[in-house]
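About this split. The held-out portion is used to measure sequence recovery: a designer receives only the structure tokens and must propose an amino acid at every position. Recovery is the fraction of positions where the proposal matches the reference. Here is one held-out target exactly as it appears in the evaluation file.
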């Protein structure tokens, strides 16, 4: 209750302007900032509160929000004041240095990110991908098994199951057209067998295939027809890759793109920092003094 009792009169005075903000959306600019609260030598201004209020706030909402905000601000200021009193000079100096370092890091990071975004190209060409992959493929060994697969899941008693299986095996252009034309009757389907899929994803989509029987059904050029209590699963495995095999480029393409973009950004930042130092030295804005003994 201490904080509300102490600051409530200040809040009610400030709310004359706060209510105007909630209705009109803007404060009228004065030559001096209007103070709405004070703790010691720290002041909270009307301009600090204005951006936090929205047009859809009622007068009651504005008043409640302002009281809570001001009391929270006051609590922090009072705690900060007590902390400074009770901390040793050494600790204060240490924490002030940390704050300065953090502020510097924050400003420079945001500035560098903005520069990088403007100056670096985010497009990675196929040639760049292939060159990087060819030179570093030994570093991209698989940690899990993957496969290229096409499959359909049919409801039990599906009348054209044999025809679907035959078409799925052969998979010529007319077969694809046929399967597409009746695809709405399937409970699941995947005809994009150029995409590499993790075994765990196959286990999720085709429950009869598990880690225990994967070697039986997930083999190169293998066709399977499996059934469970839900339905029937027909599938054709185009190709598999085992653990420690070199990952196909298409499977790790997003990873390589991120690596190349990160390198590009790092190269740009190194160049930027070098140019900044060189320019500062040239303009006598930066110099290092030798300690002569």
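Reference sequence for scoring:
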């Amino acid at each position: 209750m201490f904080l509300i009792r102490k600051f409530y009169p200040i809040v009610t005075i400030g709310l004359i302007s706060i209510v105007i903000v909630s209705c009109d959306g803007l404060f009228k600019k004065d030559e001096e900032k209007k103070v709405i609260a004070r703790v010691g030598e720290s002041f909270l201004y009307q301009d600090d509160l204005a951006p936090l209020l929205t047009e859809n706030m009622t007068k009651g909402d504005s008043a409640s929000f302002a009281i809570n905000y001001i009391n929270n601000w006051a609590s922090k200021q009072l705690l900060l004041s007590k902390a400074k009193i009770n901390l040793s000079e050494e600790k204060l100096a240490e924490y002030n240095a940390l704050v300065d370092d953090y502020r510097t890091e924050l400003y420079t990071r945001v500035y560098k990110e903005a520069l990088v975004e403007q100056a670096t190209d985010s497009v990675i060409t196929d040639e760049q991908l292939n060159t990087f992959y060819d030179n570093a493929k030994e570093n991209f060994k698989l940690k899990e098994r993957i496969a290229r697969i096409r499959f359909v899941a049919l409801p039990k008693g599906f009348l054209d199951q044999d025809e679907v299986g035959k078409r799925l095996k052969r998979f010529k252009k007319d077969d694809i057209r046929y399967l597409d034309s009746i695809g709405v009757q399937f409970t699941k389907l995947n005809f994009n067998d150029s995409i590499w899929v993790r075994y765990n994803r196959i286990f999720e989509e085709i429950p009869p295939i598990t880690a225990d029987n994967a070697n039986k059904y997930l083999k190169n050029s293998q066709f399977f027809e499996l059934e469970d209590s839900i339905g029937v699963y027909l599938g054709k495995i185009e190709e598999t890759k085992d653990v420690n095999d070199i990952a196909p480029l298409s499977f790790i393409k997003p990873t390589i793109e991120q690596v190349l973009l990160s390198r590009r950004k790092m190269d740009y930042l190194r160049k930027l920092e070098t140019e900044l130092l060189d320019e500062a030295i040239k303009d006598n804005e930066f110099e290092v003094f030798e300690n002569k003994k």
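Annotator remark: The chain has three domains: 2-86, 126-136+248-282, 142-241.
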